[in-house]
Design a protein that fits this description.
Chitobiase, domain 2, 28% helix
């Protein structure tokens, strides 16, 4: 079977479901989002080499059942409501495929599985399309399965769509989009690079993500990383535009100045704008890691640093409640460093852990640890304090396994896979962690790399242009010899 993530249970049957130029997908009324119909219409075309058009028909007779066939399906089916939100069953026979589901997300995941099973075969005059006959029963181990995607100056819209498509096709539940100075805020364009993407550029990708069943979580760093750039390169999306914005930040520009009312108003306006951009959702990622120089400017240094941080967090949490959202924050500053082995845990706090007992439990702690290959002790400590916790790995299989196993074994909220600036060199990362979060990861790294190229080739076709293919515009860096 070639489905990632691998389904929980599946049995291959004899035969194949062959189809040609037209497929009809009959669904219960209002069981799919309009964005999903648009996305899957595009995807079915792409996964069949442009040969097949699909038509969605809505039926009043179908009860939590959908049918894929070459002709409309108009038979009454029983109403099935016992399945959990993410659960689905897919039965593929020689003349049709039937999907049983409870909620829309189950139907979306079943359609994704069907797409992944499509094969292109030789025929005498052209090609023919088929799906092997299977019985599939499927649901994930973890409900919250997120990927964190960064939009840098070099990130093209095509690359971003490929990354979103890969998250959707591997059945993640959420994506977190962090714009590194690359979203042009209408409330203050000067805090972004002049080449930043506009709302009109990004909104189609948000809808595409929603169509694939992904909730898009907006992200804006509310403490450190205020430059919206990597510290090692010294770029600052605001101060390299307009140095007169310096009072919004601590003296070196790395952290926001939270005693300046103008800073707080700007962050509130940016939150509102990103929430409107990203649509319905329950969360907002506020960053809050590695705030090395927070509280050091002339105004901030007159107050207790921990009290400033606590006040800032409480105010953000209260404001997000207006939108029905909970803040997600990186939690590396919320630990007592001496409690952990620094060869296994990376922590950047300086006593901020003392405010932990006073923080609202609405705050979700995103516990990133990138060298840890054991059960995350830091995550278990946060959970014991009553916080919802997400474990966050990065770029090694051992680290990913440790993070996901910690979440599963301790019934934590879920997992965020981080990709940062390395995604184009680590195509295996998203399919690998998606498989691990869903059930288990049993393929080799090379097989996950091939899975990545398999999907991006279909989801965002290169149309014969070398630079549009794959996950990189080139294959060589620097001189050939």
């Amino acid at each position: 079977m070639f489905i990632v993530p691998e389904p929980k249970k599946y049995i291959q049957k004899d035969g194949n479901f062959y189809f040609s130029q037209n497929l009809v997908i009959t669904i219960p009324e209002n069981s799919l989002y309009p964005e999903s119909i648009h996305a899957f219409t595009e995807l079915f075309k792409n996964y069949t080499a442009g040969k097949t058009d699909i038509e969605f028909l809505q039926s009043k007779k179908l009860g939590h059942t959908a049918v894929i066939s070459e002709k409309p399906f108009d038979v009454c089916t029983p109403c099935i409501k016992s399945k959990s939100d993410y659960e689905y069953e897919l039965e593929i026979r020689e003349n049709f495929a039937m999907i049983s589901f409870s909620e829309t997300i189950g139907l979306i995941h079943a359609l994704i599985s069907f797409l992944q099973l499509i094969r292109i075969e030789d025929a005498e005059t052209d090609i023919r399309l088929c799906v092997p006959c299977y019985d599939i029963y499927d649901k994930p181990d973890i409900a919250f399965r997120a990927i964190h995607l960064c939009v840098f100056h070099q990130t093209s819209l095509s690359f971003l769509k490929k990354a979103i498509a890969l998250c959707g096709m591997t059945k993640c539940s959420h994506i977190i989009i962090e714009f590194w100075g690359m979203y042009r805020y209408e409330c203050c364009p000067e805090i972004s690079w002049k080449e930043a993407y506009t709302k009109e550029d990004i909104l189609p990708l948000i809808k595409y993500a929603n169509g694939l069943g992904l909730e898009v979580i907006p992200m804006l760093n509310h403490l450190g990383h205020a430059s919206q750039g990597r510290i090692c390169f010294g770029k600052h999306s605001a101060l390299d535009n307009n140095l007169s914005l310096a009072p919004l930040f601590e003296d070196d520009g790395w952290s926001w100045c939270t005693t300046n009312p103008k800073t707080l108003r700007l962050l509130e306006e940016c939150r509102r704008e990103l929430i409107e951009l990203c649509g319905k959702g329950s969360y907002f990622h506020i960053g809050f890691d590695e705030a090395y120089t927070f509280g050091t400017c002339r105004r901030c240094s007159k107050k207790d640093r921990n009290e400033l941080m606590k006040e800032h967090l409480i105010n953000i949490t209260e404001d997000l409640k207006k939108y029905g959202r909970r803040p997600i924050m990186w939690s590396d500053m919320m630990h007592k460093n001496d409690d952990y082995d620094n060869k296994m845990y990376w922590l950047s706090g300086h006593g901020e852990y003392k405010i932990r007992p006073e923080l609202p439990r609405d705050i979700i702690m995103a516990e990133w640890q990138y060298i840890c290959t054991e059960e995350f002790k830091t995550a278990k400590s946060l959970a014991a304090d009553g916080f919802s916790v997400l474990t966050c790995p990065w770029d090694t299989a051992e680290n990913i396994d440790a993070a996901v196993n910690t979440a599963k074994n301790n019934t934590l909220m879920g997992v965020i896979g981080t990709t940062w600036h390395t995604l184009s060199q680590m195509q295996w990362l998203i399919p690998y962690i998606s498989d691990k979060m869903w059930g288990d990861a049993n393929l080799s790294i090379q097989e996950y790399q091939l899975c990545c190229s398999y999907h991006v080739r279909r989801c965002v076709p290169a149309e014969g242009r070398y630079e549009n293919a794959g996950f990189s515009e080139q294959e060589l860096s620097g001189h050939i010899y």
